[in-house]
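Q: I have 374 residues here and want to know how they pack in 3D. Can you give me a structure?
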Amino acid sequence: MGAVLIVDDNAADRALFRVILGRAGYTVHEVARGRDVLDKARVVHPHIIILDVNLPDQNGLEVCRAIRADRDLASVPVLMLTVRHDDSDVLKGLEAGADDYVAKDSDPTIVIARVGRLIQFRQMSGLTMLNQQLVQVGRLVAGVVHEIRGPLSVIRGSSELLRINLAGDAENEQWIQSIVRNSQILQMRLDHLMATVRTGSTNVNLVDLNELAGETAGLFARGLSPSERGVEVETRLSEVDPLARCDAGRMMQVLLNLLNNARQAVLSARRRSGRVLVRTETVEREGENWALIEVIDDGPGIPESFLERVFEPFFTTRVDGTGYGLYLASEILKEQGGRLEARNNADSGATFTIWLRSAAGLEPLEPAAASAVE
């Protein structure tokens, strides 16, 4: 359901709200003093803060203003606890930045309804903002790709003509062949890049996940900055080609996102070196065949209390994190008929697993059929 931080100096009141919200499925955290709110909230990442107006050490209104002034917590909804029939507390709380209020002796159904409404509203408004940002990014990427495609077409076409004219000249033909091959690779990557920002239906076809994983891991490794070259990116590809029907461009987007998260996890441990492994395999589970891509890092891992929340929109434990990369990756997998899972390794680090239904033995979609899903 979500995480709730209750701020109230009265132990009996905290216990009451703990029972009410716990029965509704919420994870409840508590503090008794106003000065502890910001530090506690940064640790537990609550979906909502329930704040008593009257605190012994610090006025609840001041705490609310401090929450709104904090960059990391400003968007967290605040539900102000008031005493019934005291409208002055209500008005002051709303002016201080509270989103709503509820009397301490309200019916439990009212409390649960207001908590749920505030959490849902925050998520919806955040997703609206995210969609606007992604539209702008998509336009920028599309413009860059358009500018590259023109010169690339000239390079590829000219090199093809040179290869024909130099037929039989093995010494010079090898250099032309290199230009042709790399032009084809760049064209494919531009197509994949466009697929990652394309709106509408996906471009589904039969994809060899070994090829996809190998190409994406190589692309990511070559893009690391010199200061990050200590992060070793390895691949361990299945001997049996794992095949799946999916959108190759969007799968590349998901995999690049997971690789970037793994890099950040490794470097967050204040190390200059580490290891990220990309592994593919096929498995059978509950009578179904699956094709898997795993991204395994040797970083510090994920706190157990956050494992179930890493795919929530806007949930992040990094100061510079946006909190929607893993959410988008998870949503893309759902579109493809698969899923994304996270777990901690037995020794150290974490593993993110892409699950896609195996398409072994199936033929690629015909052009007409493929266009039908675009």
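Q: Anything worth noting?
A: The longest helix spans residues 108-165. Confidence is low (pLDDT under 50) at residues 367-374.
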